[in-house]
Description:
It contains 13 helices and twelve strands. With about 325 residues, it is an alpha/beta fold.
Amino acid sequence: MSNRQLGTTSLSVSPICVGTSALGSFPAQYGYGVDTDTAVATIRTVFDGPFNFIDTSNEYGGGDSERRIGQAIREHGFVQQGVVIATKVDPLPGSNDFSGDRVRRSVEESLERLGLDKLPLVYLHDPEKITFEEGVAPGGPLEALIELRDQGIIQHLGVAGGPIDLELQYLATEAFDAVISHNRYTLVEQTAEPLLDDAQARGVAFINAAPFGGGMLVKGPKAVPTYCYAPVSQATLLRVGAMERLCADFGVPLAAAALQFSTRDERVTSTIVGMSEPRRIAQTVELLEFTIPDELWGALLPLARVGRNGIEEDVA
Length: 316
């Protein structure tokens, strides 16, 4: 498993990034809770495994994701050289306060929880909560992040959000080294294509989150008839069902095809996969290394490209 350069930075990251949203315990979204011992054990297993890239956020689990990662760091004794822990700045819980002061406080909270004195990579998280004009205004979040970077508290900046057009606007500021897109470059839809191309042209690392679309591309459309936790039309369910049958004919897990759809694309620097228990590390390695014949890709990709321009028309 070869690491990849994070854009034009000096950082080198694994093709899989360990997502830790569930480690903060968020049963309302994931349908299950994660206790502290399991969360800490998961991160300690990551430290001993092949993945050197960990993604968290100030808001995950009300800060518990960062706290649990910090506990794992303390129990391990240190963060190994080369491990990249990325976090995100968030408004005050329950508010849209994305002021520069809030951004600075968000970073302080993350440093305290993680037990670090500087952060390798910090994303402006879900900037769609405010307007672009507010995001880049004097005294706003981008200005604060740049100041923190110039002070050496943050090494590199990223932006992580949903709307593709908004992320393109932020990349045009040339302030960012990385961008996260979620649920928009999968076997179901590829609306992130313009962002992938723009990031590549700018030398910005593209980090692809949620390759399984919230579970449909792991368990299949009958077990999980939603995409990104929202209902979809019968057309989408039938399309993914056809993918599932094709994979079964070739003896390939649907999840392996979903994951490798992302990792096989040279424009994707790393793919975020949520991991909520220690065994998920080995399971993800197995999916990543599963042999998928070209014949199967030849049959799957036309089905995937049906959703190339989005699933909006399919959403129920």
